[in-house]
Amino acid sequence: MSQKPLSGAEICQRLDDLAAGGASFDALLERAVDLMHHAHPRFHWTGIYELFPDDVLRLGPFVGAPTDHVFISVGQGVCGSAVAERRDKNVPDVSKEPNYLACSSATKSELVVLIRKGDTIFAQIDIDSHDVDAFDANTEREVRVVADWLAHKYAAHRKSANV
Fold it and tell me: What DSSP element (H or E) covers 89?
């Protein structure tokens, strides 16, 4: 009997519990990726790309096959164009996306949700699926809940590190 996937709110509650126990910022990011990845059977690769001041996204924690795309310039691919356009992107069929950077030939659709607070983009959640049109509006909303939770942690982390 399979378990019901965790909702965004349930993932955030687990992350709150971890944070209350003194988990580091990096441990929270890793756990968030792991919980999201296992929250949906259509998530085949899940990771966080952090945005750095040089307008390059750098791969942080991820679950799934290794990727050559450890660094992505703003404007490049689905991830880079999400930052350039300052919006989340749901690509139902990556074969129809002219700016797509192939991480895996098995990937058929991709969801990118920005981790942001106001105008500040800290990072993004990137999810690939081997299924076409894998991400419905509800899935996007659930990932957005986690992204918003992470945005507060990024803001606090940067403030404490004076970044």
Answer: strand 89-91
Q: Tell me the per-residue pLDDT of 47-90, one tens digit each, with 9 for 90 and over.
A: 999 999 999 999 999 999 999 999 999 999 999 999 999 999 99
How far apart, in whole angstroms, are the C-alpha atoms of residue 154 and residue 160?
10
Which residue ranges make up each domain of the chain?
8-160
pTM of whole model > 0.70?
yes
Q: Where are the alpha helices (DSSP H) in 23-130?
A: 25-37, 77-85
At the top level of CATH, the class of 8-160 is alpha beta
| CB crowding 133-147: b at 16 or more within 10 Å, else e | ebbeeebbebbbbbb
